[in-house]
Specification:
The chain has helices at residues 25-34, 45-51, 58-66, 94-104; strands at residues 43-44, 79-80, 108-110, 113-116. By secondary structure, the chain is an alpha+beta fold. It has one domain (25-116): Winged helix-like DNA-binding domain superfamily/Winged helix DNA-binding domain (Arc Repressor Mutant, subunit A, Orthogonal Bundle). The longest helix is centred in the C-terminal third of the chain and has 11 residues, at 94-104. It starts with 24 loop residues before the first helix and ends with a strand.
């Protein structure tokens, strides 16, 4: 008999609709929200955790961003720390590339901190 559920509650893996094998429902939820952040805007890891229904899971969101297999198509570079600093970036080029991508979108960065986003 087949389960009527959408996934395994214990592992968090979603059946059938994964972006790729080995991803979790949590990662996919994070990536879905990432795709909604418009160019020139940023969201904090904490706000993203709240948006996916897991307030307090900012570190898990950062890990989901780091596991993103398509870092430009799924724009994890638009997620920053709550204090406005850039945080990490596991895509090619690291934090330097993250800053360059954000600047290209019109985000003003001074040092390692977001000063202004596109209205």
């Amino acid at each position: 008999m087949r389960s009527k559920g959408n996934g395994n509650a214990r592992t968090g893996k979603r059946k059938g609709s994964s972006v790729r094998r080995g991803t979790t429902a949590f990662q996919e939820a994070v990536w879905d929200v990432l795709k909604q952040i418009r160019a020139g805007s940023v969201m904090t890891y904490a706000a993203l955790a709240h948006a996916v229904g897991h307030p307090g899971a900012a570190r898990a969101v950062a890990n989901a961003c780091a596991a993103n297999p398509w870092p430009v198509m799924i724009p994890c570079h638009r997620v920053v720390r709550s204090d406005g600093t850039l945080g990490g970036y596991s895509g090619p080029g690291g934090i330097v590339r993250k800053a360059a991508l954000l600047r290209r979108e019109g985000v003003v960065i001074v040092g390692n901190r977001i000063q202004r986003t596109v209205p």
